[in-house]
Write a structure and sequence with these properties.
heterodimer; A: 596 residues; alpha/beta; Rossmann fold; 4 domains; 6-stranded parallel β-sheet; globular; B: 398 residues; mainly alpha; 2 domains; 17 helices
C-alpha cells in the first residue's frame, strides 16, 4: 500500500551539511514503495549555500523555508500613511483582539513555568500546558487566515504583554526580575521560534496532502507536524536521536542572553516538547537515554518505541564470519582521539596488563579531532606511551619496536576499518563521555569481544555480550582485559554473541523494517481523509480506509465507479467485491461481447 | 537477550564514597581474575557529603543554570549516568540535578547586569561625520565660487557651476544617508518626492506666493538660495543629533525596569535633541543669510522645514516610515494648495477661498505659508514621535 509521507527536518536532510542526513537518506532510499515529500527548514545562509545532497527519484516534492532571515517581511509602501498602531499594520480590530488574547495565553504559560499547579495563576487558572496550546494554535490559525504574524510579534503590544506576564503573581524569582532589554530579547527569540507558524505549507496540496508526518527530530521540526495534525488530522510520528531540549541548553546562542530570557526560553521549549509528545501518535527514541528524557516530559509509555539507528553491516561481514580471531594478545582501540576518550587511562591500564601478560600489544587506530585540542592530546598520549613502554626487541641484535602503536586507518597496513577491527582479539572503549558508541557497534559486527566503560548508551548497546567496567578505573579495565586475553574460548563466545546481537538490533534492515511497520500502522489507523466512495449497499456505514486505490491520488484519475450495479438475472452470482470498484477484470460482462 | 550474563560492573575502592576494607571484597572475587595479594587498595576516606564535591566541580554550571534540567543536561554531557548518580544516593540524574539546583546559592540566577555593547555607529563615528560634512562643504564651495565670479563669468558658465555644485551636493547626500545614524532600513516610497518639493518650495516658494498674491505670476520669480545652503550645512548636526538620540536611548534601555519608565526617561532626550537641532539650524541659516543679502527669506520657514525633515528621518530610521511620509505629504499638500487657492480665488464668486492665504500673507509676509505648513507638520510629527519613539520596541537592537 502506498503511503505518502511528509518528512519534516530542521537543518537536516536535503542539505549537504545537515545533521542526521545519513539516516534520512537511508530511510528514503530503503523504502521505495512509499512516497516522500520533504519539508525542510534551513538554519543558516551558509547551509543553504552549500546545497543539497542528491535526492532519489522517490522523493516527490521538496519545500524549504529559511529560519535565519533577519529582515522583517517586506512592508508594502502605502501612500496613505497608516499610522502604526502599537501592533503592526496589517491587523484589524477583531484580529488584534484575537492576537492579544492568544499571545497573552502563550506568554503567561511560558512565564509561569512548566510545573505550576493550576490554582497558582492569577487571572487564568488553567494549567500552563492548556494555556500554551490555546495560544499556540490560536496564533497558528491567525497566521493562516491573515499572515503578518512576524511583524505583530515584534511590535510594542507583545512587549507589553511580556512585561505584564513577567510581573504577574506566581512567576519565579528569575523571571520576575527581568528588565526591558530582557523583554526585547525574549520577544525576538519568540518570534524566531514561532516562524514555522507563518509558512505557507498548511494547505491541501502541502502538508494537508500527506498521509503521515514524520518529524526527523523534535522541537522546531515537529512544529509544522503539530499544526498539520491540528488543521488536517494528519498523524504525527516523531523520531529523536538526540534530546532537543538538551541541545537547547548546551548550545551557546550568538548573543549572550540574560538569565530571565534563558529561563523563559527553557520553559517555552519544555512546554512545546510536552505538547509534541502529547499529540504525536508514536515517538521513537534512538536509545534509552533519549527515552528517559522523553518520559520526563510526559511522553506516554504506549507511544514510545525504541528504534536503534541502523548501520551498514556488509563491510564487516567477512571479518565477522571469518575464523581469524585477530592477532594473539593484541588489544585494539579505534576512534577519534580527543580528551573525552580518555586514552591516558587506557595506557595506564595497558601498563598493568603488561605486568600480567608480557606479550600483550596495544594498537591505537584513529585520527585526532580537528583542532588544537585533539592534536595536543595526541601528542600527550604519545609522550606518555613512550615513557611508560620502552621499545622491545627479541634479542640484542634486532631493531625493536614499541608495544603501543598509534596508527591511522588508510595506511598500507590497515587499508580500511574492517581490517583495523580484525587486527586484534579484544576491542576496548575507555571513554569518559559517550553518546551512542558507534565504534562499539562496529566491533560487535566484527564479532570481537569488547571491554568498555559504563558511559552513555554502552550498557544498552552491549547488553550481556561484552565486559563493562566503571569509567576512570584503569585497574578494573586491566583486570578485564587480562581475563579476556587468557581465555580464547570466552572471547569467541562473547564475540559470536555480540555479532548476533548487533545483527539483530543495529542493522539498517531492522531500522527500515521498524519504520515500515510504524508507517503502515499509523496510516491504517488514521481516519479516512480522502473522499472514499460510499458503499452502494450501505451509504451510512463506516468509512472504508483502504477503498481507494493508490491511483486516486494522481490528478486526472476518474473516480472509481461500480462495474456491476446489478447482477443480471441468471448470469451467476457476482461476488460482492466486484461491485463498487473499478475492475480490470478480464471476465467482465462486456469484454467478450465482440466475439460471442 | 539469551546467553550467560556477562556483565561485570564492579565499583572498586577508588571512589571517595566507598567504605569498607578491600580484604572483605576479595573473598567474593571471581576465580579467573588474577589476584595479586601484594596489592593493597587505597582506601580513601571521602567526605561524608559527596554531593558537595560534585557541586564544587560543576560550580560554574550550577550557577549559570536557570532550572534543574539544565544542570541535568550539563552533568550528562560530562558523563554522569544513572548508575553514577546512585553513588550519590539518588535515583537518577534528574533528582541529583534538583538537589544541586536547590543547594547552590543562586548567584547567576539573579539577572546579571547587562554590559552594554556600543552601537555600530559609535565605532564608525569618523566615517559618517565626514560624509555628513560633504554636502555642506560642496554647497559652500559652489556658493563661494558663484560669489567670487559674479561679474566675471557669463550666464552659461554660472549655470554650469551651479549644476556641478548641485550634483556634488546630491552625491554627498546619498553617501551620507546610506550609512551612519541616518540610515533607513526600509524606506517608504514617496518620501524622496516630497522632500524635493519641499526644498524647491523653500527656494522659490516665497517669490511665487508674493507674485501670485500681488496680481499674478509675472515670469521669472526671485530665488532665495540661502535656505538651501543653510540646510545642507545643517546635515552634519542632524546626523549628530540622531546619533545622540539613539545612543542615549540605548543607554537608558539598559537600565530601565519598566516600559513606562523607559518612555518617561527617553521623552526628554527626544525633545532635547530636537531643540538642539533647531538652535544649530537657526544659527547656520543666519550665517547663510548673512552671506546672501538677498530678499530676506526669513529664518522661521527654513528652520521649521529643517525640523520637519529631521523628525521624518528619525521616524523612518527607527522603523516607522509611513508616518514620516504622511507628515511630509501633509506639508507638501498645504504648500501646493496655497497658490492654487489664491489663483482659484480670482474666479468670480470664489474669492472666499483666497481669504485664508491672504490673511496669512498679510500677517507674516509671503514666508508665512511655508512656516505654517512645515510648522504644523513638524509639530504633528513631534507629537507622534513622542509616542512611538519612546517605545522600547523602536530601540531593539536586533
Amino acid at each position: 500500500m502506498l503511503v505518502r509521507i511528509g518528512l519534516l527536518t530542521d537543518g537536516g536532510y536535503p542539505y549537504a551539511t545537515g545533521e542526521s542526513r545519513l539516516w534520512c537518506d537511508r530511510l528514503v532510499r530503503g523504502l521505495p514503495q512509499h512516497e516522500f515529500d520533504l519539508f525542510a527548514l534551513s538554519r543558516s545562509a551558509d547551509q543553504e549555500r552549500q546545497g543539497w545532497v542528491r535526492l532519489p527519484d522517490r522523493v516527490g516534492r521538496v519545500r524549504t523555508a529559511p529560519m535565519w532571515t533577519r529582515e522583517e517581511d517586506a512592508r508594502s509602501p502605502r501612500r496613505t500613511g497608516r499610522f502604526a498602531t502599537g501592533l503592526g499594520r496589517s491587523y484589524g480590530r477583531r484580529d488584534r483582539r484575537r492576537f492579544t488574547a492568544h499571545v497573552t495565553a502563550l506568554v503567561g504559560a511560558v512565564c509561569a513555568g512548566v510545573e505550576t499547579e493550576p490554582g497558582a495563576g492569577g487571572a487564568d487558572t488553567r494549567p500552563a500546558s492548556a494555556r500554551f496550546t490555546d495560544g499556540l494554535y490560536g496564533l497558528a490559525e491567525l497566521a493562516r487566515d491573515g499572515g503578518g504574524l512576524r511583524d505583530a510579534l515584534r511590535s510594542e503590544a507583545s512587549v507589553r504583554i511580556v512585561q505584564a506576564a513577567c510581573r504577574a503573581p506566581g512567576t519565579g524569582r528569575t523571571v520576575h526580575g527581568a528588565t526591558v532589554p530582557d523583554y526585547l530579547a525574549f520577544v525576538a527569540e519568540l518570534e524566531r521560534a514561532l516562524r514555522p507558524l507563518s509558512l505557507d505549507w498548511y494547505e491541501e496540496d502541502g502538508l494537508g496532502g500527506v498521509d503521515l508526518c514524520h518529524a526527523a527530530s523534535g522541537g522546531t521540526a515537529a512544529l509544522p507536524g503539530l499544526l498539520a495534525k491540528r488543521f488536517f488530522g494528519v498523524p504525527l510520528l516523531v523520531t529523536e536521536h538526540g534530546v532537543p531540549l538538551r541541545a537547547h541548553y548546551l548550545a551557546a546562542p550568538e548573543a549572550p542572553l540574560g538569565a530571565p530570557v534563558r529561563a523563559m526560553l527553557a520553559n517555552f521549549h519544555g512546554l512545546l516538547a510536552a505538547e509534541v509528545y502529547r499529540q504525536a501518535a508514536i515517538v521513537t527514541p534512538g536509545n534509552t537515554h533519549v527515552r528517559r528524557w522523553q518520559e520526563r516530559f510526559g511522553a506516554h509509555r504506549d507511544k514510545l518505541r525504541t528504534v536503534y539507528p541502523g548501520m551498514e553491516a556488509e563491510r564487516f561481514g567477512d571479518v565477522g564470519e571469518g575464523d581469524d580471531a585477530g592477532g594473539p594478545g593484541t588489544l585494539v582501540w579505534i576512534g577519534r582521539i580527543e580528551p573525552a576518550k580518555d586514552l591516558i587511562a587506557l595506557l595506564h591500564a595497558f601498563a598493568e596488563v603488561r605486568r600480567a601478560e608480557p606479550d600483550a600489544r596495544l594498537r591505537i587506530f584513529g585520527a585526532p579531532v580537528p583542532g588544537a585540542e585533539g592534536e595536543t592530546y595526541l601528542a600527550h598520549c604519545r609522550a606518555l606511551a613512550a615513557q611508560l613502554f620502552p621499545d622491545e626487541a627479541m634479542d640484542a641484535h634486532t631493531v625493536g619496536d614499541n608495544p603501543v602503536t598509534f596508527e591511522e586507518i588508510g595506511g598500507p597496513e590497515v587499508p580500511d576499518l574492517a581490517e583495523a577491527y580484525a587486527a586484534g582479539g579484544v576491542v576496548i572503549l575507555s571513554s569518559v563521555v559517550e553518546g551512542f558508541p558507534i565504534s562499539l557497534v562496529e566491533a560487535m559486527f566484527c564479532g570481537r569481544a569488547t571491554v568498555s566503560t559504563d558511559v552513555g548508551a554502552v550498557v544498552e548497546v552491549v547488553g550481556g555480550t561484552g565486559v563493562v567496567v566503571p569509567p576512570r578505573n584503569p585497574r578494573a579495565l586491566a583486570d578485564a582485559c587480562v581475563a579476556l586475553l587468557r581465555d580464547p574460548e570466552r572471547r569467541a563466545r562473547l564475540g559470536a554473541a555480540a555479532r548476533a546481537r548487533a545483527l539483530e538490533l543495529f542493522t539498517v534492515e531492522q531500522n527500515l523494517a521498524a519504520f515500515r511497520d510504524i508507517y503502515l500502522d499509523l496510516a491504517g489507523h488514521a481516519p479516512a481523509r480522502w473522499a472514499t466512495p460510499v458503499d452502494p449497499r450501505d451509504p451510512a456505514g463506516p468509512p472504508r480506509p483502504f477503498a481507494t486505490p493508490p491511483e486516486a491520488h494522481v490528478l486526472g484519475a476518474t473516480r472509481p465507479g461500480p462495474v456491476a450495479t446489478r447482477a443480471p438475472a441468471g448470469a451467476g452470482r457476482v461476488p460482492s467485491w466486484a461491485i463498487g470498484a473499478t475492475g480490470v477484470c478480464a471476465g467482465a460482462r462486456g469484454a467478450g461481447d465482440g466475439d460471442a | 537477550m539469551g546467553g550467560p550474563a556477562e556483565v561485570e560492573a564492579r565499583g572498586t575502592g577508588s571512589e571517595p564514597a566507598d567504605e569498607g576494607p578491600w580484604e572483605v571484597r576479595s573473598a567474593v572475587r571471581a576465580p579467573e581474575i588474577a589476584y595479586h595479594p601484594g596489592r593493597r587498595a587505597a582506601v580513601r576516606r571521602g567526605p561524608a557529603d559527596p554531593v558537595k564535591v560534585l557541586m564544587h566541580r560543576h560550580r560554574d554550571l550550577c550557577e549559570r543554570a536557570v532550572d534543574p534540567l539544565e544542570i541535568a543536561a550539563g552533568l550528562e554531557a560530562h558523563g554522569l549516568t544513572d548508575r553514577t548518580a546512585a553513588r550519590y544516593r539518588h535515583r537518577d540524574v534528574f533528582s541529583l540535578a534538583e538537589e544541586l539546583y536547590a543547594r547552590v546559592p543562586a548567584a547567576g540566577r539573579s539577572a546579571r547586569a547587562h554590559h552594554e555593547r556600543p552601537g555600530p555607529d559609535t565605532e564608525a563615528r569618523a566615517g559618517w561625520t565626514l560624509t555628513a560634512l560633504l554636502p555642506g562643504a560642496a554647497c559652500l564651495a559652489t556658493a563661494g565660487a558663484l560669489r567670487a565670479t559674479e561679474g566675471v563669468l557669463g550666464g552659461g558658465a554660472r549655470f554650469a557651476v551651479t549644476a556641478a555644485g548641485a550634483l556634488l551636493v546630491v552625491l554627498g547626500l546619498r553617501l551620507c544617508l546610506r550609512a551612519g545614524p541616518l540610515r533607513v532600513p526600509a524606506a517608504a516610497g514617496g518620501a524622496t518626492l516630497y522632500v524635493c518639493w519641499l526644498l524647491g518650495f523653500a527656494v522659490y516658494g516665497d517669490g511665487l506666493i508674493a507674485q501670485v498674491v500681488s496680481g499674478g505670476p509675472d515670469g521669472h520669480w526671485t530665488a532665495a538660495p540661502a535656505p538651501l545652503l543653510g540646510l545642507s550645512l545643517a546635515l552634519a548636526p542632524a546626523a549628530w543629533c540622531a546619533h545622540l538620540f539613539a545612543a542615549h536611548a540605548r543607554r537608558r534601555l539598559a537600565g530601565s525596569h519598566g516600559l513606562s519608565e523607559f518612555g518617561a526617561r527617553v521623552r526628554p532626550v527626544l525633545f532635547g535633541v530636537v531643540a538642539l537641532f533647531l538652535c544649530a539650524t537657526t544659527a547656520l541659516l543666519y550665517l547663510a543669510g548673512l552671506g546672501h543679502p538677498g530678499p530676506g527669506a526669513g529664518l522661521t520657514g527654513p528652520a521649521a522645514l529643517g525640523a520637519l525633515l529631521l523628525l521624518a528621518r528619525l521616524l523612518a530610521v527607527h522603523g516607522f516610515p509611513e508616518p514620516a511620509a504622511t507628515g511630509l505629504a501633509a506639508a507638501c499638500a498645504v504648500e501646493v494648495a496655497a497658490p492654487f487657492l489664491v489663483l482659484a480665488g480670482r474666479l468670480p464668486g470664489l474669492d472666499l477661498l483666497a481669504r485664508p492665504v491672504d490673511a496669512v500673507v498679510a500677517a507674516a509676509g509671503p514666508g508665512g505659508v511655508a512656516v505654517l505648513a512645515c510648522g504644523i507638520a513638524a509639530s504633528g510629527l513631534l507629537v507622534h514621535a513622542s509616542v512611538t519613539l519612546t517605545r522600547a520596541s523602536a530601540h531593539a537592537s536586533a
